[in-house]
Amino acid sequence: MTSARRTLIDAETTPYYHIINRCVRRAYLCSEDTVSGKSFEHRRGWIVDKIKALSSIFCIDICAYTVMNNHYHLVLKS
């Protein structure tokens, strides 16, 4: 069952959150796919630009981020 965000996030406890999002089925987000030989490195810039744009829209501070081959990490401050 889903829960309301106000019950999940308590800014008084900590304003910082570590968020992870990864690809499914061993798909490549960035880097070179060893099977097909295709390079997806161009996506890294797209993802960084989108993170910056969304942070300004939703008024969330990004303390740190990293974009890996098949996932990315964000440290957010509410």
From TrEMBL:
SUPFAM superfamilies: Transposase IS200-like (SSF143422). InterPro entries: Transposase_17_sf. It comes from the Bacteria. Gene3D superfamilies: Transposase IS200-like (3.30.70.1290). This is Transposase. It comes from Shewanella sairae.
